[in-house]
Design goal:
Layout: H1 3-22, H2 27-36, H3 41-62, H4 71-94, H5 98-116, H6 118-121, H7 138-151, H8 156-167, H9 172-197, H10 202-223, H11 228-245
Helix pairs in contact: 1-2, 1-3, 1-10, 2-3, 3-9, 3-10, 4-7, 4-9, 5-8, 5-11, 7-8, 7-9, 8-9
Length: about 250
């Protein structure tokens, strides 16, 4: 990797970390960047997952204020995300990508629609907010998103924001903090699995790790200042970009 290619990957990592902290889908920056510098797809996917883990952790730390009062939710949802991340990582190493590429755009589109129409949909869905448990389908949906996140991860945040915002709590900033924690769990457990059983391009992973950590703190700092309608619009826009990008 030349110095220019290294700088390119570092900048992509910063952009991914920023986007992941605010919405998700940072993989759509770093994965193509790794392919562009000549890293094979599977190796790029594995190295990307390892590199992005510190960035998602930085975003979660940056949103720690929004996590106050959500300990019970984290206790329930973290094990579910962890299990999903492990299964997704195993699937990446053992199955072809064609099946996921067929269903992923549909999932992202569904997530965008749920986020966009959340205020209206919430009127027809009864969520027992006083228990902080939310709708019954939140746990299996978070698990399924964890599987997807461990496998590839692009727009994992969009899906989580749709699930958490609709089924758990309409406050998007608080759900963004929780989303960052769950994404950190998925990315970290997948990264550990890949480090143990797969090849990793450590230079690429290190560059993305440094860039995404910086970006994670930047995204947390400025993302929490977005009003709900702006955050909702950003989620939908990035989701649409994700769908279009994955068609090429």
């Amino acid at each position: 990797m030349t110095w220019f290619e290294a700088l390119f990957v570092l900048v992509a990592g910063m952009g991914a970390g920023t986007i992941n902290a605010v919405v998700g889908s940072g993989t759509l920056l770093t994965f193509p960047a790794l392919l562009a510098v000549g890293i094979p797809p599977v190796l790029a996917n594995v190295s990307n997952s390892v590199g992005l883990a510190p960035g998602t952790a930085a975003g979660a730390i940056g949103y720690r204020r929004e996590l106050e009062g959500q300990r019970g939710r984290m206790i329930r949802l973290i094990p579910v995300s962890l299990a999903g991340g492990v299964i997704g990582g195993v699937l990446l190493l053992t199955t072809p990508e064609s099946a996921f590429h067929a269903v992923v755009p549909v999932l992202i589109l569904l997530g965008c629609l749920l986020v966009a129409f959340q205020p209206w949909l919430s009127k027809w869905i009864s969520v027992p907010s006083h228990t902080h448990r939310g709708a019954w389908w939140v746990l299996p949906a978070v698990f399924a998103t964890g599987v997807y996140g461990g496998y590839f991860g692009a727009a994992q945040g969009v899906l989580l924001m749709a699930i958490l915002g609709l089924g758990l709590d309409p406050d998007l900033q608080r759900m963004n903090g929780l989303k960052n924690v769950l994404a950190t769990v998925v990315n970290t457990v997948a990264a550990i699995l890949f480090i143990i059983v797969a090849d990793v391009d450590w230079l690429a992973a290190a560059l993305i790790a440094v860039g995404s950590t910086i970006g994670g703190f930047l995204g947390a700092r400025y993302g929490r200042k977005l009003p709900p309608i702006a955050l909702r619009g950003l989620i939908v826009c990035i989701g649409i970009v994700a769908i279009v990008t994955m068609q090429f």
